[in-house]
Design a protein that fits this description.
394 residues; alpha/beta; Rossmann fold; formyl-coa transferase, domain 3; six-stranded parallel sheet; three-stranded antiparallel sheet; 17 helices; 15% strand; elongated
Length: 394
Amino acid sequence: MRVVGFEQQIAGPYCTMILADQGAEVIKIERPGKGDPAREMAPIKRNEAGEKNSGYYLRFNRNKKSVTLDVTKPEGRAVYKDLVRTADVVVENFKPGLAERLGIGYQALREQNPRLVYTSVSGFGSDPRYLGPYSDRPAYDIIAQAMGGLLETCGLDPEGPPTYLGVSLGDSVSGLWAAFATMLALFQRTVSGQGQYVDVAMFDAMVALAERSVMTYSLTGQSITRGVERFIAPWGPFRCKDGYVALIVAIEADWKKFCQAIGHPELLDKPDIQSGPGRCEHRDRWQPIAEDWFAERTKAQATDELLAQGLPVGPVQNAAELFADPHLAARQMLPAIEDPIIGRYQMAGPVPRLTGSEPRIGPAPRLGEHTEPVLQSLGYTAGKIDALRRAEVI
């Protein structure tokens, strides 16, 4: 499958990286001389020759080919259309309307390639059938998380400010949805023979992640907010000698195991805390006892003792602990990559494990590294390529 990524930053690149991991030929379109703005974002590492690479860029662009192309010029748009004629998929995540204004939107491209799957990721959606009052707004990750209901539920202090998770869920989860939807459209194409337009909105993706809040409000009329859990307890991080352990007691059978594990079976004799909502309402009956038990143990000790009772528990880990985690090593989840500029680095690798294939792990491309070979694959002669270069189209 040939995928053209008319993309920048995270959401579009995350989608195409997932496709590239599984063997798609992803051709990333970048601005001549500058490239994806992500190339300039920290952390930046330089080699002895002064050449640099961006960790931000490396995170989302492994296994791709880079073609520089100025689509604001007529010659650049002509090259882009020639490339899309050979493509199965286009993924783009610019502000809605930009591609159409340039004459390279879905309607223009499908005329020359009816089998094309065109996946658009935007802040608030772009399918004309589902436009709303926010459709023209710009959006970044934190905006989508805030409006979608996630920030409202994050944080331990009910009177404090909403807490950003520090993870670009608005972008990455939208990219995951876009990759899934692209594969779905390709599967449908095997039956219909036709491509289609795929619309993924970051706002929608965050509302889908906030499904617990949506269902709770639908059934109770109450909004879940930060710091206040009304249905499940114990649930959350508990402080140990050397950090925190995460635990959830989701069912009453686990509550019995928890009381036995911490050496306080008498808690099972208190009728008002024998349900999740009851334990949320009467935290004073059990929480100080639980907190004291955790405070006397290291993360490893608490985890081992609770696991011995069959409880779902795990230590809160930082990046250094992830790199030392033996299970992640067994899963080969932090693969090493040799970059031609900065050398060896490790990154979070592909998630799926398939018995029929192995994911591909390769470096992110240098800016414009594949411009010439890709144009040659379209039948462009050396003279035509040189002319495009002189005109600063590539």
